[in-house]
Amino acid sequence: MKTRVAVLISGTGSNMAALIEAANAPDCAYEVVLVLSNVEGAGGLKLAEAAGVRTATIAHKPFGKDREAHEKAVDQALRDAGVEVIALAGYMRVLTPWLVGGWRGRMLNIHPSLLPLYPGLDTHARAIAAGDAEAGCTVHLVTEGVDEGPILGQARVPIQQGDTPALLAERVKTAEHRLYPQQLDVFCRGLERA
To answer: Which residues pair with 160 in a beta bridge?
Structure first.
């Protein structure tokens, strides 16, 4: 029995697409049963539909500043779909302790830096400005602090002379598309033994 995963997105969904593609392998430990976005018409929704995955949109704007009310609607959609694990993939919302607590130990995220370095935004520009020799990406469990949860896996990407944040971001994204499916698979296999 494969672990039922929901992928939460806000944009184009390139990591989501990598997760769905990897799930097609017969020996993959998870299946993507729902792709949910907080943005109407997010590009990734069309990709998910084309792959035969159910989609849903629960826009955050109608909820105004009431983050928890929005998250309660998201949570209900996840539970109605029988979701067991959440994979955040470019979901551009800071989550409240209510949602994080409800899915503790079952919500993963991918971040475009070698955490604990450079949590938050502008990770590539910050790594280049610091003179770092390498950048990369991190898959971690989600906790109440932004990009602070336990690290499950990382991939390193050399910073090359003349790199711009955009050039570096493209190479890191390639690494993300390998790392995230691999780490989600490992994580879901661990759940099966639990």
So the answer is: none
